[in-house]
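Example 3.2
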Amino acid sequence: MRAAVLHETGQDKLEVLDDVEAVGFGPGKVRIRVRATGLCHSDVSAMSGVLPQPAPFVPGHEGAGEIVEVGDGVAGLAPGDRVLLCWLPACGACPSCRRGQPHLCLAGFMNAGTPNFARPGGDVFGFAGTGTFAEEVVVDAGCAVPIPDDVPFDIAALIGCGVTTGLGAAINTAQVQAGSSVAVIGCGGVGISAIQGSRLQGAAEIVAVDPVASRREAALRFGATEAVAPDGLADAKQRVTAGEGFDYVFEVVGRSQTARTAYETTRRGGTLCVVGAGAMDDHLQLTMFELFFDEKRILPSLYGGGDVLRSYERAIALWRAGRIDLESLITHRVPLAGINDALAQMRSGEALRTCVEI
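Structure, written as C-alpha cells:
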C-alpha cells in the first residue's frame, strides 16, 4: 500500500512509499479506503514539531473514503459506506462528554500514540490517530462518520476539519452577533471558513487580514467586506471602528505575536477567538491590569468548539442550500505522488486548500 511518510520530525518533505501496511484492525475498528484528503496547516505543524506527534508518521487527518471492512462489535457501519474521518471522536462517557463538551474529549488524542501503520523498518504512526495520506487507514469505528451520497469525497474531507473548525469558531465559540464588526487574521482554509461563518451570523463588517494577495482576493469572494495586508490592519481598525476595535477578532495563525496583535485590535468588552494551533513553548503575554480593565473575552476554539457530529450535519445542510461555498475552497488538486507540491503550495500561501486525490 502507498502512503506518504515523514521519517523524522523537522524534515520538510514526505517520502511516498509502497511498502506501508495499515495495521490494528480488529474489534471496534474499521478499515477505510481513502479517496480524498485535504492538506491542513496542522499537518505541516506536526511535521515541523510545533504540534507534538511521534515519528515516523503518516500526516493527514482531513479525509474521506469508503469502508472496506468492519470489525466485530461495530454497529451502524458496513463495507461500502461512504464516510468522512473524524480525527477527534467523542467517547460519550468521559466528564467532557457528559457535560456536553464532546470536542474536549481526550479519547481521540490517545490514538495518536498508537501506531496504525507498519513497514519493514518498523512501526509508523498516523497523525492525530488517523494518517490520511495513505491509500488505506485503520481507525476506531467512531472516527468513521457516514456521509450522504450527494456529498463528494473532496467536500466531505474539508468538512472533516477545516470547514468545521472555522465555521464553528464563528457560530459555536464566538457566537458572532448580527450587525457586528469582525476581523479575521489568517485567511487559509480555516480563516475563510471563519469568514463564511461570520457572514452567516450576520456580521456587518468583516475585514480579512493576510500577507498573501491571492488569499486577500479570495476572502472578498467568500464574504469579507474588505481585505488588507497585516500592515493595513491598524488603518482598517481606525476606519471601520473609529479606532475602538473590532467586536470579534479571530486569530487563525497560531502564533503569540499574531494573537497579541489580535488582542490589541479587539475593542474593550469584545471577543478574541483563538483558532490557530500553536506551539507549547510559544507564550502569549498579557498584563493583569489589561485583563481586568479591558474585559476582553479570550475564547480558544478547538475543532469548532461544539458537537462535531452536529457541526458536520450543519455544514452539509448549509452547503446544500448554497449558503456556504466549499467547492471554491479547493484551489489545487494533486495525486498522492505530488504531495510535496501540495506542501509547497501551502507554505507559500498559494493554496487555500489542496485536495490530495488518492
